[in-house]
Design goal:
Structural class: alpha+beta
Strand content: 15-25%
Order of helices and strands: HEEHHHEEEHEEH
Oligomer: single chain
Mean pLDDT: 93
Number of domains: 2
Number of helices: 6
Number of strands: 7
Low-confidence stretches: none
CATH class of the largest domain: Alpha Beta
Length: 186
């Protein structure tokens, strides 16, 4: 599945895309619509049916070429067909992280992951915001060569879809080690 909404069985009337459509090489944005929405704005100039919108990064020929090349690579390398195995591997590796003393919920949708860090797992007690636990964990991960980000006390993982199974295991190992190291320090 290429989009998060597909995991939920949702077919949006409007879908806004950016960044990933070019593989992150150049900025580009796009708006996709259903045929019904498209036709509602289709008409002669005098009818004033224009859908007045725009993206800062719309229509750049170089970015569009990068997006087309990215989509061709997706097809050629069967990126989407290989995803189920990667998603399952990520889920298996996250199960190890979930067992850690200071990990609360581990949320995963496809390749998107949130790892909640908690002071007390049994009581579901959060770390005080001032402890900056998420920041401390990502700094520990950086020492090990892994760049990730926190959203407060949640470590966010969004690995590229082209990641290998070994790289996926390495990333989750580094996250686990970083969480252990920081939470053992207190």
């Amino acid at each position: 599945k290429m989009f998060a909404c597909e995991h939920e069985g949702v077919s949006p009337d409007l879908l806004i895309l950016a960044k990933g459509i070019t593989g992150g090489y150049l900025p580009l944005a796009a708006t996709l619509t259903t045929r019904e929405i498209y036709e509602a704005f289709l008409g002669e100039y005098r009818e004033k049916k224009t859908f007045f919108h725009g993206h800062t990064y719309t229509g750049n020929p170089l970015a569009c070429a990068a997006a087309l090349a990215n989509l061709q690579i997706f097809k050629k390398e069967k990126v989407l067909e290989k995803l189920p195995e990667k998603v399952q591997t990520l889920q298996d590796e996250l199960a190890k992280i979930k067992k850690l003393e200071h990990v609360g919920e581990v949320r995963q949708k496809g390749m998107m992951t949130g790892i909640e860090l908690v002071l007390d797992k049994r009581k579901k007690k959060a770390y005080p915001y001032e402890d900056k636990i998420g920041i401390r964990v990502i700094r520990e991960a950086r020492k090990r060569g892994l760049i990730i980000r926190p959203l407060g006390n949640v470590i966010v993982l969004l690995p590229p879809l082209s990641i290998s199974l070994n790289e996926l295991r390495e990333i989750t190992d580094l996250v686990r080690i970083s969480i252990e190291r920081v939470t053992q320090q207190g």
